[in-house]
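Complex 757.
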Amino acid sequence: MEALKHPDYKAEDKKLKEVKKWVIHEKATVEKQEDSLKEEIKKIRKEVLHLQDERLIAKQQLHQFAERNLKNLKFAEESPYFGRVDFQEKNREEIEKIYIGKFGLHDQREDMPVVVDWRAPVADIYYSGHSKEVGFKAPAGEIKGEMHLKRRYEIVGGSLSAIYDEKTSENIIEDSLKGKGEFLIGALNKTTSGRLKEIVATIQDQQNKIIRSDSLRPLVVQGVAGSGKTTIALHRMAYLIYNNRKNLHTANYMVIAPNKLFLDYISAILPELGVDNVRQTTFEDWAMGILGRKVKLTKSQDKLNLLASKENIKKEVIATASKLKGSLLFRRVIDTHIRRLEAGLMPIEGLSYNGIPLLEHTTIREVFLTSNLHLSLEERIKKMKTYLKARLKKDKKDIKDQVDARYQKKILKAKAYKDQQEIIRLYDERDRIFDEIISSIPQLVDNYLQQVTKFSAIDFYKDLIKEKDELAKAFRDKMRDGLFDEVWQHIFHEIEGGILEAEDLTPLAYLHIKLIDFKERHKYNHIVVDEVQDFDEFRLSLLREIAINDSFTFVGDISQGIYGYRGINSWERTMERVFKDKNYHYHLLTTSYRSTIEIVELSNKVIKKCKGLDPLMAEPVFRHGEVPSLVKVGDQAEMAEKIAERIEELKDIGYATMAIICKNLEETKRAYGYLENLLEDVKLLTDDEDTFINGIVVIPSYLSKGLEFDGVFLWNVDEDHYTDDPMDVKLLYVGITRALHRLYLYYLGKPSRLLDI
Ligand SMILES: Nc1ncnc2c1ncn2[C@@H]1O[C@H](COP(=O)(O)OP(=O)(O)OP(=O)(O)O)[C@@H](O)[C@H]1O
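Predicted structure with adenosine-5'-triphosphate bound:
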């Protein structure tokens, strides 16, 4: 309701003014602190010799903290909070009025919270409290009590513009359709700014549960398009970091997203939520980071375009080769090979000095095969070096015995001949040899281990692929007759020809970790993976190697799994196989917050036609719009003209972001060719793009995944482009579900049967 009309307006306005006054005062204090810290840092810099100076680092950290604090206070000046709950703890008299905002504000002098951070334990009741009886988990245990009021605010430019209460009767507080709906629909009706945004004020109950789930086991979210998966995953990251903030300097966090364009599209959320220093990357870039070099890959999109084309007769071979490389069985084959390499790695001779045995081969081998198994082979060899040097030094007595034994016969013989001179010479020689051995232990060990063959991940991988029989043993009977030979030929020729594809990166990164180098610093406290339905099982199992406590948030939608040749078809099966014996959280999100009822209904009808998929139907939030229009045109030039006209109309009513979505890259380029002459500000978005561009874009369907636009124009949805092939159905589904408010579909000849509804 409009704020002025609310019965508590005066009190709320007074409260807001008080909080703002506090914020302004606090801001001035922090500004001063920040200035003086800057000066101090300057001064220390002149005095110290290196940048690692402890005093300098401490001041820099304080300065960073002040800067962040200042940023939050600036935000709070405009909008310090968005909600309030009145909470009475069990067996207590007083009712606390708790104001909840994007950033917690704390009065240090009074030691009192001014505004509670949305991630704080008590804020849980704001999101999930539906009845009067509420509770939340605090570090000291569960706290129970009664909620007397739940209120939401719209504060624009520092003034109250609307207040929504969720109190419907004296005893029951529920999300009455109106209270919650109005506030949420208000948020959803806005046109998009072109980037994904934070939603702390309108997080819904189930989304809240996901965000606050414990992080000690993997969490999977299967959600329909537009259900907030990406948004929630990033809020969960912010939540976990906030609750682990004491360890911020040692903790590592990572977000893995499908491509650079998408990363750019989501890049603002975490900093908006006050979280910096989270690594946001693609799987490919992360894997190349592990390998320590850039690897030239063929693009997955090329393969997708190839598989989407009708002509290619090698489709089955290409798809099966990818499946093979992404399977856990392939990982097992690799493991067997690593074990074989490991078993024969230590030299077959023991350690000796001019024929004097110092340590037996069997002992060395046993130690090597049983210690430091969590490290890579190369690191284990380094450890072996240290171990052998220490052990030989410790075994001085045994070495002495060996040397003595070697000289004993000779000395006895000299004694029998009473050859005094020879006896002395032998004793001298014996002692000298012993001293020589002891002083040359480091060199001896170095030389000994120098015999160990050097290996590289890529050479190992190439050798492995050559082992046709080995691979056949594992895979032949899993394929139709004759297919394995074709698949192997294909893989072998690609590798020999130096062609690597995305699916090769997993085995290569895995091999690098197992063979060469795996430092603890590569480990992460939490990893978010978006669009995880396109990951294969080997890739997921590889990520397990780098996640502490299997702390993952996996979000995806099987209905959008367009890389069907490698992706996930059943969460249950994949989780059971990759995370054997490990419990995991599973959540299903079916509400689409993105699109109008009419658009969601169309998308449901389309995805229902996907053979072999049992998709969940999306439920729209109560928000009507125009019915999507299906428009017939005479040729592509006319299609472009009609789209351009419509775009101008939509611009006039305030829609800012629009996309012309085409089925594949080739078509996207063609459509752009027509449109660039008709629209001044249209941009082409292809796989090579790193930066998401706002405004009007022409983009292939696979690349539009995860993005959203006020208006969407689907280019050429005729019966040839979108057949009943599952990949076509999914691509059409992806295209339709990108639209927030308006959707237009154009075709030549006959429309796709998928739209026959
Ligand atoms: N609780 C919410 N309040 C307001 N907006 C929301 C809420 N949840 C989701 N949204 C909005 O819905 C839209 C879709 O969110 P998001 O992109 O995270 O969904 P998704 O499930 O990842 O979609 P896709 O499967 O298409 O990638 C975004 O505009 C987001 O801001």
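Residues 111 and 737 are 48 Å apart (CA to CA).
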